[in-house]
Amino acid sequence: MLVTCPTCKNDVEWDVNNPYRPFCCERCKLIDLGAWANEEFRIPAEDADPGEFPEADDEQDTPRH
Ligand SMILES: [Zn+2]
Fold first, then answer.
1. Phi/psi-derived region of residue 34, left when phi > 0, alpha when psi is between -120 and 50, beta in every other case
2. Which residues does the annotated region (Disordered) include (predicted)?
3. How close is the Cα of 15 to the center of ligand 1, in Å?
4. H helices within 1-65, ranges in order?
């Protein structure tokens, strides 16, 4: 079953083993939860601004099936 990641709009397989569902990855989940404002959650990936999510740069750590 495919669902759409609410953050990056990628298709992601609904997997009960995926703790981030319905998101495709941890980063998308944290973004959606607004965790960017929380100092505890620093994602050492890209320098993405909280209000601006780069769609094209989201491919590398996105699990695709
Ligand atoms: Zn995503």
1. left
2. 42-65
3. 14
4. 26-32
Q: Which tens digits make up the pLDDT trace of 5-49?
A: 999 999 999 989 999 999 999 999 988 888 555 555 555 666 656
Query: Residue 38 Cα, ligand 1 centroid: separation in angstroms?
Result: 19
Q: What is the pLDDT of residue 34?
A: 81
Tell me: cis bond preceding 22? Omega within 30 of 0 counts: yes
Cα 57 to averaged position of ligand 1 atoms, centre (Å): 11
**Model confidence, pTM:** 0.50
Rounded to the nearest angstrom, the distance between the alpha carbon of 44 and the centre of ligand 1 is 16
